Amino acid sequence: MTAASHTRQITGSIDAITGCMFSGKTEELIRRLRRAQYAKQKLIVFKHANDSGRYDPVRIASHCGGRFMANPVHTVAQMRELITDDIEVVGIDEAQFFDDELVGFVRWLRQTGRRVILVILNQTFAGDPFPGPGPALLAVADSITVLTAICTVCGQTASFSQRLTRDTEVVLVGEKENYDARCILHWIPEGTPAE
Ligand SMILES: [Zn+2]
To answer: Which of 57, 66, 161, 183 is the 20 to 30 Å CA partner of 147?
Structure first.
C-alpha cells in the first residue's frame, strides 16, 4: 500500500451557499472559513476582481461587517495557478461572475480531495436564473444551502432581489444603493425607482 502524499483529514466536496442579495451568503462563507481555520486546514479564498468595489479590494466582506482575506482574480486560470498541493479548502465568493470554466475547475478540486465552498447569487432582479456558471455549479454541488433575507416592506422572509431602478442591465454596480430584499408579495420584477 502506498502512503498518501499528505494527511488530509477531509474528502472532496462542493458546498454551495445561495440565495438572494442581503441573505447573508458571504457571512455564511466567512463562518465556514473560520471553522476550517480553527481546524488548522490550509485554505485559500477567491473573489472576482470586478467585485472589488465593495468595501475592500483584497478581502471578502459581508453586509454585516465580516471580513476575510481573499485573492481578487479575473479568471479561473488565475485561481488554478494559486492552488498548491497543501490546499484543503477553497472558498469562492460571488462565483456567478466567473465563466463556465469554473464548473470543471471546482469538480477537479473535489476530485483531488479539496472541500470547495461557493457563494452563488441564484437569480437576477427579474427572477431568472443568474447567467453564467451558477446553475451548473448548483447542479454538481454535494450540498446546497439556500439562505433568505428579510423583506424591507413587511418583514417577512424574502427570496428576491428588488432592483430600485428601472435599469435592465443584469449586473449593476453599487448594489447597496440599487437593491433591497423583498418577499414574493412585494417584489416587483421589472424594478421600481427608489422612494
Ligand atoms: Zn414583503
So the answer is: 57
Buried-state track 92-122, b at ≥16 Cβ within 10 A, e below 16: bbbbbbbeeebbebbbebbeebbbbbbbbbb
Which range scores top for mean pLDDT: 62-76, 126-140, 181-195?
126-140
Ligand 1 centroid to residue 187 C-alpha, Å: 7
CA 135 – ligand 1 centroid, Å: 26
> What are the structural domains, with CATH classification, of the chain?
13-147 (3.40.50.300)
Which amino acid would we find at residue 97? F
Kindly list the catalytic residues.
94
Burial class of residue 183 in the structure, from the number of CB atoms within 10 Å of its CB (0-12 exposed, 13-18 middle, 19+ buried): buried
Task: Tell me how far the alpha carbon of residue 166 lies from the centroid of ligand 1, in angstroms.
Answer: 20
Average pLDDT, the chain: 88
